[in-house]
Design goal:
single chain, 449 residues, alpha/beta, Nucleotidyltransferase, domain 5, 2 domains, 7-stranded mixed β-sheet
Length: 449
Amino acid sequence: MPKILTFDLGTTLFKLAVFVLRGNLLGLRRVHPPIEHPRAGTWEMAVESFFSCLRGGIRELRTQFDLSDVSAISFASQANSFTLLDAADRPLCPLILWPDDRAIGQTAAMQRAAGRAALRQQTGIPRMSHQFAAAKLLQLRGETPSLFRDRPRLMFISDLLTWWLTRQHVCEGGIAGLSGAADIHALRWRDEALEELGFGSLRLPTITRAGRDVGAIDPAAADELSLPRACRFVVGSLDQYAGAIGTGSVRAGRVTETTGTVLAAVRCARVIRQDAPPEVFAGPSFDPELYFEMSFSSTAANLLEHYRNSLPDRPDFSELMSLAEHATAGELRIEPLGEGEAIDRCFRHVTAQHSPGQVVRAILECVAAQLAGQIRSLCDREMPSRIASAGGGARSDLWLRIKQDMLGVPFRATVCEEPTSLGAAILAGSAVLGKSVPALAEEWVAFRE
C-alpha cells in the first residue's frame, strides 16, 4: 500500500508521520527542534540544524518502515517563524521563531498597522503583536540594515521545508495570511502593506492554497533521503487548520479545538464575518468557497506542563489526570495567562495547602473556561452539534468532560492521536487520489466512542 509522509512543524516538537494511503497511521517520530536562546527572550534555530533535525527523523523512520513507496509528502506548520536567504538561497540569519521577544519595542507599530480598516477585511487579522514576523522584520531592519541591502528572500519555516524538497518558493495561504501582509481572498501579497510591515525590500514566495500538488520532489532531495523520485509534494497548511481537517471540520459550521502549546478553536465558514469579535482571526482553506475562523490563547496545556515541571518528581501527565479525577470542582482558581505576563502569575492563588490534584483540576477548569469563551466568540448563537478535539488535551477524558459541561456541547476525540498530521495526510491523499478533502475526511476520520 503506497504511503504518505507528513511533517508537523510544531513549536515544541517536530513530528514526522507515515500513513498508508487510506488514512491509517503506521508510525511516528517525535524530534525536538534544535532551538537556541542566545539572549534572554530570543528563540532561534540554525537553518542547517533545521535540515539536520529532519534528516535524522527520516533516518529513524527508515529503520522501521520502507519509504521507497511514499507517494506524497505534505506538512502542518507554525506561522510567523522565518529566515532570510541571499540571492543564492544561502541563509543570512537563523530561523527566528514566533515566540521570540526581540521585537517587543515594535508593539506600537503593530497596533497602528492592525488599526487600518483594510487589514481585517483583506487579511482576516484583527490584531498584531511583537510576535508577528512583521515586528521582527522591522526590528532587524533597524538593527542590521545591511541584511536588506540586496533584497533577501523571505521564507517561513514551512516555505523552507518546501524549498528543501522541491526547490520551489511557495507559501501556503493561511501561513501567508497570518503575516498580516497577504490578501486571503485573492491569495496575493498586499502592496500597500508591504512597506509598512517591513516586507517591502524582500523577495516573497508565491502564495498558494493548501492541497495544491506542486509536482515531484527534487531528484537530489529524493536521493539524499532515499525517497522515490516520483513522490509528489502537496502544499500543507497552518497547523491549526490541519488539525481541523484531521478532525473532520471541513464543512461550514463544524468546529475543532486544539489544546496544546496554544489553545485554539477553529470553525469552518462560508463567509468571514466583518462584525466578528476582535479575538477572531480568519484565513483561507483548501477550498476557495470556504474559510477557517480561529480564536487562540496562550492559556493552554503550557500551564499544565509548567506546573508538572515544578514538581520534584515530574510525574507523568496520566498520573496528574488521575489525581485531578479525585479533586472537587471549583476548589481553586488558576488565572488565565495575560499577554506579556509571566506564567507564574497564573498560580498566585496556589498555596502549600493545595494538593497536586486540586491544582491540576483548577488548571483544566481554567483552560476549559478560556476555550468556552473562544468558541462562543466563533459561533455566536449557532453552536455546533459537536466539537472535535485535537492536541494533547484530547487524550484526557476528564478534560473533555469538563469542557463539555461548560459549553453543553458534546466533545469528541479522534481515534488517530495525531489529527494534525492526519489533516496534512488528507490534503496529500486528496491530491494523489483525486478525491475532495471533505470526501476523504469522511473516509479517514474516526472518533473514539
